[in-house]
Amino acid sequence: MRAIWKGAVAFGLVNVPVRLYAATGEHEVRLHQVHREDGGRIRYRKVCSLDGEQVEWADIAKGYETEDGELVVLTDEDFDQLPLSTEREIEVLEFVPAEQVDPILLQKTYYLEPDRTAAKPYALLRGALEQTDRVAVVKVAIRQRESMAVLRVRDKVIVLQTLLWPDEVREADFPVLDDDVSVRPQELTMASSLVESLAADFDPSQYEDAYVTALEELIAAKVSSGDTQAPATPPEEEGASEGGAEVVDLLAALQRSVDKARAARGEDADEGSAGSGSGSDSGSDSGRSSRRTSSTGRGATGAAKDRGSTAASSTAKGAAKDAPAKKSAAKAAPAKKTAAKKAPAKKAADAEDAAPARRKARSKAS
Predict the structure, then answer these.
(1) Collapsing DSSP states into helix, strand and coil, what is residue 142?
(2) Are 146 and 87 in contact, with CB atoms under 8 Å apart?
(3) 158 backbone dihedrals φ, ψ, rounded to 5°
(4) DSSP state of 10
(5) Is 105 exposed, middle or buried (0-12, 13-18, 19+ CB in 10 A)?
(6) Confidence band (pLDDT; 50, 70, 90) for 338?
(7) What letter would DSSP give residue 231?
(8) CB atoms within 10 A of CB 304
(9) How many CB atoms lie within 10 A of CB 341?
């Protein structure tokens, strides 16, 4: 057993350090709710009634609705401020006769185990309860709830049994019980004889839960006959276990982010897709690189920004490469014009050099 509480029993000037253990546990066959057709588990999720979103346990607080419909929200910090004077102490208030404690008040039962150093005061309290045939009425706080309880002895162990508060016990208001019902002496004698014929000492070990026993036998019979099936796993859990669902969701989120970024720049999503396909390989490689980078942990928005910046830098680099070529072409064009301008001048010089030779030829002919 594992202790669920640790504190001390305080009566008078005596302090007994103890540990608290649950003394009882319900015996039941644990069954799950499943879909009859495919065996899928039926699960219950905590969903907000306003937005329909699933709420994590850390985001859940407790609320109290007033009579006029107002809501008071109480947080863990609010509960921490509430006083619990007996949080780590079992305070003995008085010792009362055991028969005066109505069994209807009894709730859960716990065992008290003493520390090794507290064996003697523990035995002293146990002996006093046995000798006086009384129980100790105490106050104790378990799991942030203060309760009344009694200490009594069972074998060699001091047992703590929590009690209901008096206002938690309902009154039995049945008007039929106020009617005057006459019972004849012979009938009462016959009923008493029946009681005596069934009289015995109480031994709970001779009784068993017949329903649970039959249910366990039914389950064992189905297992032995092979009437079983593998537990069904929801598709989203299968994908999550293999990492597939996460990748699909990530790519979808990435595509939505890219489309949103293009829309913000005034581009059409289809045109952007076609442009990326007909463009340079560096643009598509950068898109694939941004997807791979985002799958390592960055968000889809960051990947879209990276993709946009990569495309912009790719365009800038292309423009930068084209610029020197254009400048070279621009420089070459004036050179051609200069050559064109020099050509007529050369022809004129050649004509002037040839003119004296032609004149000499004409004079000799004459």
Answers:
(1) strand
(2) no
(3) -85, 125
(4) E
(5) middle
(6) very low
(7) P
(8) 22
(9) 9
Output DSSP code: residue 41: B
Contact 110, 3 (CB under 8 A): no
**Alpha carbon distances (Å) from 177 to 171, 173, 174, 180:** 13, 9, 6, 8
At residue 105, φ and ψ (nearest 5 deg) are -80, -20
The C-alpha angle 54, 55, 59, rounded to 5 degrees, equals 165
What type of residue sits at position 332? Answer: A
pLDDT score of 63: 92
pLDDT in tens, 42-88: 888 889 988 988 898 888 989 999 988 899 999 888 887 777 655 67
Q: For 34, which DSSP code?
A: B
In whole angstroms, give the CA distance from residue 5 to residue 143: 9
Place of tokens 């706080």: 141
The DSSP H or E segment spanning 147 is: strand 145-154
142-170 residue pLDDT tens: 877 788 999 999 989 999 999 999 899 99
Short-list 18, 21, 3, CA closest to 121: 18
* Three-class DSSP category at 31: coil
3-state SS, residue 250: helix
Percent of the chain scoring above 70 in pLDDT = 66
CA distance 132 to 125: 11
Can you give 64-121 as a three-state secondary structure string?
EECCCCCEEEECHHHHHCCCCCCCCEEEEEEEEEHHHCCHHHEEEEEEEEECHHHHHH
The whole-chain average pLDDT of the chain stands at: 74
Q: Global pTM?
A: 0.54
CB-based burial label for 112 (10 Å; 0-12, 13-18, 19+):
buried
Q: Which of 57-61, 121-125, 142-146, 203-207 has the weakest average pLDDT? A: 142-146
Q: Exposed, middle or buried, 67 (CB in 10 Å: 0-12/13-18/19+)?
A: exposed
**pLDDT greater at residue 319 or residue 128:** 128
Tokens for 48, please give them.
């907000």
Which of these, 187, 106, 96, lies nearest to 134 by C-alpha position? 96
Partners of 141 in the beta sheet?
A: 146
